[in-house]
């Protein structure tokens, strides 16, 4: 039986039933649905709508249903349109007619919005944990790879030498911003819809403040109409997932390049690469490629729900039933991707020798300019002088670090005080010692800050 059959003289057509039913999706919120009902029944007793005995019967029945869901023994029936119907139907089977009192003063509209928020709040710690693991891996990499020098690129052209640890930690901070957003998602999720009825509020004297406390929400929603139609929390989660997915994708893309034979900065572990059915020699970076590929899922889900919401008249519209699919999909994809990526990063073997060989001396051009600046030249002039030196070194096919003092003096008299140690990748790195720079000293400070962040949980 449906929860709404009274006014109808004909049942739903099969095709309409199939389109309308949401049980396959909202099964995932079964425990939250029962928890919401347990609190609601207490609220009904508090408002004097049901007696303590009736509440006791309802609580006993709901506790049994909770166990059935948990153990996987709950039997769904063909007519279970959605999770709310399934729970109420089962409650009736267990405790009889009193079950019919549970839905007093509430609607599936406020119920589903409550279930969904509760579900998301319950899952946020798992997402936070998975991000944290990847952050820990990045910190570990930054520690074990400390001292290795990596060519830093801009425009994918060789730019300046950097510490590999500095590079690893650059992804740490992006992930940290993502992780911090979870606190905000929790906050916007934590406004309780229950007690808003179908749209206008409930006609019974329910203590919604107590209801909010009982269900672990910050407070009851201040406007029933907004509360029924608000899916901002879902959008925030999907938007968070999209940007996180993009961060993961950029890390993954870099590692697809760096594990290729052309770069060969890292070797993939066998446990995180797959072979080709045709080419026996292949070891493919599938985990990085899939991480990159999955970013499309998160963005697609965000676009999907934004599009569903756009143009909906207030207040509840059945289109809103589409919301859960998007959130579940992004959630599942993150839970699948983050651990595999963490493992793949953790097990990479760096090749410090090749990284160093790829630092060519032109990457020290800025350091020569900085030397001239320190010896009194305006930077613009120094930039020009060094440009000419680079041109000369290319013509002579001689690295700028190999030019003699005599050759340099042809370009500027300030080179009279140059010493051989000015031009090296190590020196270039250690010069950049201000906060946030790539010098050993600065990266050590950064590592400490990063480790402090690992101690913090945001949800
Ligand atoms: N299954 C719906 C959803 O997920 C909730 C039920 C609302 N049904 C209704 N007839 N108002 O949004």
Look at the helices and sheets and give the structural class. Answer: mainly alpha
Molecules bound to protein: arginine
Helicity range: 55-70%
Mean model confidence by pLDDT: 96
Q: In CATH, what is the homologous superfamily of the largest domain?
A: Fumarase/aspartase (Central domain)
CATH architectural designation of the largest domain: Up-down Bundle
General shape? elongated
Q: Which oligomeric state applies?
A: single chain
Instruction: State the CATH class of the largest domain.
Output: Mainly Alpha
What does this structure look like?
This protein is mainly alpha-helical and 459 residues long. It folds into 3 domains: 15-104, Fumarase C, Chain B, domain 1; 115-198 and 225-357, Fumarase C, Chain A, domain 2; 368-451, Ribonucleotide Reductase Protein R1, domain 1 (Orthogonal Bundle), CATH 1.10.40. It contains 18 helices and 6 strands. It has helices at 14-20, 23-26, 30-46, 52-71, 83-95, 108-144, 164-189, 208-215, 224-229, 232-258, 286-309, 323-346, 352-357, 365-374, 379-396, 405-409, 425-431, 440-454; strands spanning 149-154, 157-163, 191-192, 219-220, 266-267, 349-350. The strands form 3 sheets. A two-stranded antiparallel sheet has the order 1-2. The model has no long low-confidence stretch (mean pLDDT 96).
